[in-house]
Amino acid sequence: MSEATISRPLARSIIEVLGSYGTPPARGIQHFNVGNHSLLDALDEFYLSSYLQDGGAAYKMVVGDYGSGKSHFLYCLRDMAWARNFAVAKVDLSPIETPYNDQKLVYQAVVSNLIWHEADEMSSDETGLMRFLQGTLERVVGGDLDLETLTNPLYRGLIDTLEATSIDSPAYQTAVIATFDSLIRGHEERLDSLTRWLMGEKTSPADTKILREVGVTGKIFRTNAFRMLRSLCQIIRALSYSGLVLLFDEVDRMASVGG
Known about the structure:
Blueprint: H1 8-21, H2 37-48, H3 70-83, E1 87-92, H4 103-113, E2 115-116, E3 126-127, H5 129-141, H6 153-164, H7 170-185, H8 188-198, H9 205-213, H10 225-238, E4 244-249
Parallel strand pairs: 1-4
Antiparallel strand pairs: 2-3
């Protein structure tokens, strides 16, 4: 590894994280990764760069003892997914807080841990569906949001694509479009109500009134959460991402896998 392949600040950050916590760093993991390139290359060739790009879906489980490098491997996969223009959410599942067989809790964990990622190696990643939507909108229109954005051809094209896309939940589709509109217009109260709805949180009667005004009805329950997760995947594809990669950590140690 040479000075030309990694910056001094990033190298120092990697050493500090490894030395202090013993966990994989958020950035630069490719600079100290060995022994698993053949497996990563296979996943890239047969899934990330081909099958999944075409709208396919797949599930893989990484099995290993505690400390064997499962989380490290997931970080490598995360970086590969970003390089292929996938959105990524990394979720730590636990039997109590996010049991795998409670679909609403899993949905909430996914949207809370959806990562907004900037290519700059020294930028910090941020998490949350709302940050992801805002960042995507700003990236599409090429700058900050203001009322002129409403007439921006790139924004109009984005909305036309969202409206023309078949989404399992029309309410979810409407909520995302209304979120973009609220971000542009600076409607904080409406945005707060939409945030609670999209994040699967409890909504108040006042929220319900605001949501109905923009055409969002119903709520996210345990019984429809998987449908909402599918809707999120469809929305992400409509936003010109290759798809959504969900990285569930420690799932193999849970007794609640099933459902």
